[in-house]
Amino acid sequence: STDLECQLSVSCKCYEAAHEILVFSNLKEQNPEQYTQVVKRMGNIQNEIGVFYMNQAAALQSERVESKMVSTAEQQLWKKSFSYFEKGIQNFESIDDSTNAALLLCNMGRLMRICAHAHCAVGGDFKREFSPEEALYYNKA
């Protein structure tokens, strides 16, 4: 893991801890603005982590020889990225922040296109039809 990955992870854990304190000590009701800010920041850091893993997966994909299969490392990065985008969307939706939820949905769409493109490059036969994997990811995008 990189320094950046570690810093992002620690930031996320801090916001999650702050969220838990606000929820379990009933401060959420006493100070709703503070609660909203913590949830928003938690969503933002989850987006940053999702983008971080998505960019790492894209870098692995660009280094891969076209004929090679999608690596397990790439798939793990996709899963991590998707999971963080999903958590961020849930956080933004919980405070009715549709603008930031839309941003994360756009990033999730980019991730799905990266996944589809990775499966497109496998095999090297340039046919006009999508493989089942490509179709799945493009539909998700």
From TrEMBL:
UniProt-recorded name of the protein: EDRF1 TPR repeats region domain-containing protein
Lineage summary: Eukaryota, Metazoa, Chordata, Craniata, Vertebrata
Pfam family, one: TPR_EDRF1
UniProt organism field: Micrurus corallinus
EDRF1 TPR repeats region domain sequence ranges: 38-141
Top-level taxon in the UniProt lineage: Eukaryota
GO BP term (any one): positive regulation of DNA-templated transcription
